[in-house]
Amino acid sequence: MALEHAILVSLLERPGSGYELARRFERSIGRFWTATHQQIYRVLRRMEADGWVTAEEIGQDGRPDKRSFSVAGEGLAVLAEWLRAPVQAEAVRHELAVKIRGAAFTDDAGRAALIGEVERYRADHETLLSTYLNGEKRDFPDLDGRDAGQRLQHVVLRGGIAYERMLLDWLDDVLDTLRAL
């Protein structure tokens, strides 16, 4: 997937400025596709030049005008083509998993340091799970009356919640195993 596709989906859900898109990436889209503000602005400029999005200047009292982007017909066609394309399994690169395997070749001090790292990593993911669960309560208190887009956003969030729960279970197993060595 390219950042362009994530931006097209976000803009179809709700048009917005580059800043608003960056905030959406931080708040929700970033659960499965991350991008910096600079990347978003750079890709938006390219997408506008390619005719995938259009921008409307919106005046703001006491602040500079903002540009609100929406998907153009060409962008919709690109997205439709991408949606029909098969998805390839992603190659997973997980540095912590390699470190865990490497623990067989270190001393007690090295394993103790790794246990600390796994505990830190676990705490980060516990915080992320809490963020997802709070977002679910805030954004999806009831699915009655939700449109297809909202239902699909929720199913993606539920996937993130399930992933974090699985990861936390695995990290607990890792910690038990490392402590037993």
Describe this structure in a few short sentences.
The chain has 181 residues and is mainly alpha-helical. It contains seven helices and two strands; from the N terminus they run H-H-H-E-E-H-H-H-H.
Provide an overview of this structure.
By secondary structure, the protein is mostly helical. It has 2 domains: 3-84, Winged helix-like DNA-binding domain superfamily/Winged helix DNA-binding domain (Arc Repressor Mutant, subunit A, Orthogonal Bundle); 95-180. Helices cover 66% and strands 9% of the residues. The protein is built from 7 helices and 2 strands; from the N terminus they run H-H-H-E-E-H-H-H-H. The protein has helices at 3-13, 18-27, 37-49, 73-84, 95-102, 108-139, 148-180; strands spanning 53-60, 63-71. A two-stranded antiparallel sheet has the order 1-2. Strand 1 and strand 2 (63-71) form a beta hairpin. Helix 2 crosses helix 3 (37-49) and helix 6 runs antiparallel to helix 7. The protein is elongated. The two termini are 41 Å apart. The model has no long low-confidence stretch (mean pLDDT 92). Residues 92-178 form the Transcription regulator PadR C-terminal domain. It comes from Actinoplanes xinjiangensis. It holds the Pfam family PadR.
